[in-house]
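User: I'm writing a short report section on ligand binding and want a predicted complex to refer to. Could you take this sequence and coenzyme A and write out the structure as tokens? A short remark afterwards would be nice.
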Amino acid sequence: MSSLVTVLVDGDVAVLRIDNPPVNALDRDVREALATALARVETDEHVRAVVLACAGRTFIAGADIAELERAAWRDGIGPDMHPLLAQVEDCPRPIVAAIHGTALGGGLELAMACHYRVAVESARLGLPEVTLGIIPGAEGTQRLPRLVGVEKALDMGLSGRPIAAADAVRAGLVDRIVEGELEAGAIAFARERVASGAPHPRTRDRTDRLGTPSESAPMLEAARATARRTKPHIPAARAWVDAVEAAATLPFERGIERERELSVETVRSEPCKALLHVFFAERAAAKIPDVSRETTALPVERVAIVGAGTMGAGIAMACANAGIDVRLRDTSRQALGTGMAAVRRNYDASVKRGRFTPEAVDERLARIHPQLDDAGFGDADVVIEAVYESMELKRTIFAELDRVASRGAVLATNTSTLDIDTIAAATSRPDRVIGLHFFSPANVMRLLEIVRGAATAPEVVATALALAKRLGKVGVVVRNLPGFVGNRMMFPYMYETQFLVEEGATPEQVDGALTRWGMAMGMFAVDDMAGLDVAWRVRQELGHFRDPAVRRPLVADQLYAMGRYGQKTEKGWYRYDASVGGGRTPIPDPDVVELIERAAAKARIARRAFTDDEIVERAIYALINEGARVLEDGGALRASDIDVVYVNGYGFPGWRGGPMFYADRVGLRTIHDRIASFHREHGARWEPAPLLARLANEGRTFRELDAEREDGAPVAAPA
Ligand code: COA
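Assistant: Sure. The structure tokens for the complex follow:
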């Protein structure tokens, strides 16, 4: 008997326990072992019922995504789960799925083929496939509506969000919540069902929750509109609605055929390849060559934060939300008051949106201790400095933290531009110092750039990665080079959009082209949100345009000099008006267009019309070319790390996989040649990155490069 599935017999109930760490993915070996175990118990005359349970931290968290990825790059045909599902549902003994942790995707599909489902209260159940650009392919599209009704099924599949066990009971997905030990509860439930003498329900035979076609038609129509509005670029969203329609209108067997067609179509789609790439990229980012799995991350229960400004307050919320106790220090009562008021405002908004209950907010607020002194800093596991970008101030703070923090504490700086090693040198323990570059708003944005200094200890890197995960973020370890990864790449992209408006486009047109292409926001709107004063300061810090031969954008400095800092001054590249979208909606400003035209005329820049495609190429290829340079000098460990940074921190569409994946898909030859033509036309800033040129010549991709460099060594020795 395989160790993947253990059979334990408790009197007249057989428990089949799957044990396939870490998440009990339903891979081929598990499917085979399960089929064998089932065949054994279903002919055992002593067994009157079966419980299907899982060892470890979770019920089956899905089909094996690695198998799915292989299918995505081949013919779209994933593993055939139908024989196993039929064996389960046709089993002469009732089967009860016993769910803890998460029952997701293929895991929930298998559970729905069982006759009953019980769960612990903390369990979560869902079909998250749409977030991977696919629809469930193991009969889940046909069974979910039969269990929970068409409307709920449409909602669960379109959002991809798992639901809590209590909600699942209300919806009809789970039969009972088990208090106490799960397997014992499931066994008791199974015995009850056998004793009742009632027939054991097969989900496929049920139609009682489906309603009539005229009842489901308006629901399907509304869901199609939601799919178009919320996921316009993901074919799987529309396919999910089509599949549920099949469930509502066709017999089960025909519904399964329709599911199969739609599933193959979505698995082969480009967004699916991209989203699977991002799934694996996010997990690969946590693997650092010299930080082995054995390197222990230090436990983090107490965090101290220096600076209660926008970043400090956001970081405090992120920690409090994760159950971490926070000391939030600032130098004046006023600053602390402003910071805590922002925290409260934010939480109030979450309560209004129904994200948190008032009680949950109270618990979180109680974890944040605003203070003017260092009380408790000596007990903090991690201290995060989040003051404004001044090297002198940061060094003073780090020298002081060196005196008050415990010897083992991690000392982190939230700088987005400054040199970590210079900051670390202000302490007697540079090995404990690291950069934690949060993105604003820090309680929302998923990206955490983890900046490793020359002396940072592996254990400190491991702690930062574990903290990122605990905060629900994805940590990407980057090298301590100017601008790190994200901002370093953003500047060439930003400047290119500014050159485009000098050459004849408008900010509105550039932003429109970028958002239509898939970016969450246009570059000018981002600049206004982050603040033109901030970008100005960073430009000085990074020493851009010191070389007079490099083309310099003409307008940003002028806007800065006029005090047009963006949203906060109600004027930047756009205008803002408190009565329009709460002062956050960009309103095109003819004054800015005029300013641009005057600047261009003075500099004798010829102006012409641009198409969306030209705009996107200029902007996105600037990002890609700099990405290749980042990779070449070891700024990032892998091309896929850059993708994770851009998808999670800069609004790059996940369904395009990130800039480097996108470049692969367009073809590095094509990208290179276009960049070379920009180089001829616009000069030095467009010189193709040597790595890009090399890969294009060799006919290779960034993905292939990542695969070859799994040990993470830099492509070339840093200059
Ligand atoms: N198939 C194969 N491997 C999977 C997997 C799946 N369905 N789900 C997770 N894994 C792997 C991850 O790649 C990771 O591997 P690694 O340790 O080698 O990097 C490991 O399991 C742990 O996953 P991770 O996401 O880091 O753990 P977590 O505890 O934070 O989250 C889940 C667990 C299950 C919630 C999360 O992994 C998840 O959402 N998985 C995808 C579920 C899904 O979409 N299923 C539908 C597909 S049919």
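A remark for your report: The chain has three domains: 5-268, 302-480, 487-708. The first strand starts at residue 5 and ends at 10.
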